[in-house]
């Protein structure tokens, strides 16, 4: 079975045809990710509706999300919310709902100089401690914040870690590998040399596949991505690791089973 361990089916880009998108991914285990109270609940409902869909619940750095939604004029509910109450909700669901397989999307994003780092670090640390309490993996966002993200993960002695769309330098890639963490590779690895290098450096038993839908389309960067396109990640990984596509598919799925 194919795996898309990280996508955003709650995104407004899917609002008109999410059911058709899931149907096209019927042979894929899809993990749709929450980042706010609204999207966490949407992810739970979608996982309840479809057998091949699981969910990850999390809190994306709120101020970063609000800024990006405003900048790109996306019709997404990102109103301020009480992070403490949402963490309580996430923890309860992670303890009781079999469809919740990870805590995500969480992490750090330093791509906006006018947004402070301390609040992000504090929230990330709290969410890591939550993940340890419920014994769930974390799927980590670390845009322009790779070193800080790694250090906070190490301080919390995190074991079950997936670094999503990781863009850190070679020394940081090696550090993650030595920690026995996983990297999830998006389908634009087909043309993105940084992800090709990441896949080449990473042991095959530490690789997973994602789409980060609706972003990172493998065919045309301007078009919407979707879980069905995760096959492109598998094909490119198979080429890089010199195995068949079927072997790569099986290895990735076993890696997922080992993680969960």
What do you see in this structure?
Helix content is 45%, strand content 17%. The longest helix is centred in the middle third of the chain and has 17 residues. α5 crosses α6 and α9 packs across α10. Strands 1-2-3-4-5-6-7-8 form an eight-stranded parallel beta sheet. It is α/β, with parallel strands linked by helices and 260 residues long. It has one domain: TIM Barrel, CATH 3.20.20.
Essential attributes:
single chain, 260 residues, alpha/beta
Quick summary of this structure?
This protein is of the alpha/beta class.
What are the low-pLDDT stretches, counting only 5+ consecutive residues below 50?
Answer: none
* Radius of gyration based on Cα positions: 17 Å
- What is the percent of helical residues? 40-55%
Class in CATH?
Answer: Alpha Beta
Q: What is the number of helical segments per DSSP (H or I, 4+ residues)?
A: 10
Write the layout of secondary structure elements.
Elements: E1 2-7, H1 18-24, E2 28-33, H2 37-49, E3 53-57, H3 62-72, H4 83-96, E4 100-109, H5 118-134, E5 138-143, H6 146-155, E6 161-164, H7 170-178, E7 182-185, H8 193-201, E8 207-209, H9 231-241, H10 245-259
Parallel strand pairs: 1-2, 2-3, 3-4, 4-5, 5-6, 6-7, 7-8
Helix pairs in contact: 4-5, 5-6, 9-10
């Amino acid at each position: 079975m194919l795996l898309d361990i990280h996508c955003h089916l709650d995104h407004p880009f899917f609002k008109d045809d999410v059911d058709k998108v899931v149907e096209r991914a019927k042979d894929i285990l899809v993990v749709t990710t929450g980042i706010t109270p609204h999207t966490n609940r949407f992810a739970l409902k979608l996982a309840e509706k479809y057998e091949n869909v699981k969910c990850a619940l999390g809190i994306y750095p709120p101020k970063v999300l609000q800024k990006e939604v405003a900048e790109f004029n996306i019709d997404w509910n990102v109103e301020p919310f009480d992070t403490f109450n949402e963490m309580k909700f996430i923890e309860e669901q992670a303890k009781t709902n079999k469809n919740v397989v990870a805590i995500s999307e969480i992490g750090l994003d330093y791509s906006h100089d006018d947004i402070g780092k301390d609040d992000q670090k504090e929230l990330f640390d709290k969410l890591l401690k939550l993940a340890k309490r419920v014994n769930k993996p974390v799927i980590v966002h670390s845009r322009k914040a790779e070193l800080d993200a790694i250090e906070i993960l190490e301080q919390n002695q995190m074991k079950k870690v997936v670094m999503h769309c990781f863009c850190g330098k070679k020394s940081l890639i090696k550090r993650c590998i030595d920690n026995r963490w996983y990297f999830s590779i998006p389908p634009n690895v087909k043309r993105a040399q940084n992800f090709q290098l990441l896949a080449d450096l990473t042991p095959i038993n530490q690789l997973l596949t994602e789409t980060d839908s609706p972003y990172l389309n493998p065919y045309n960067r301007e078009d919407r991505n979707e879980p069905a396109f995760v096959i492109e990640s598998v094909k490119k990984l198979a080429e890089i690791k010199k195995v068949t596509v079927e072997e790569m598919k099986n290895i990735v799925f076993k890696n997922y089973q080992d993680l969960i």
